[in-house]
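Render this sequence as a predicted structure.
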Amino acid sequence: MSGAVQELFVRPDGVAQGLYGELIDADALGAASVVRASHVEPAPGGGWTADLSPSGGPALGPFPLRSEALTAEADWLTRHRLTPPG
């Protein structure tokens, strides 16, 4: 095992939400849809930005590395759009 973790949050109505990853086979959960929540793109002056406007969020960055923008994107989405039940 790699020790990697992928979180899914199941709402009271039975809908599961999470950041897309390949650790969980979404087909095994039933009907699934994938919706873009943000865009990680090269910044005009260099570096990378995470544009969270599709989720009603801010633009983050620029970050020197794309991996840093991806981490910031995932952190923001987890804190602001994926709320654990209860």
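Summary. The CA atoms of residues 9 and 83 lie 7 Å apart. The longest strand covers residues 59-63.
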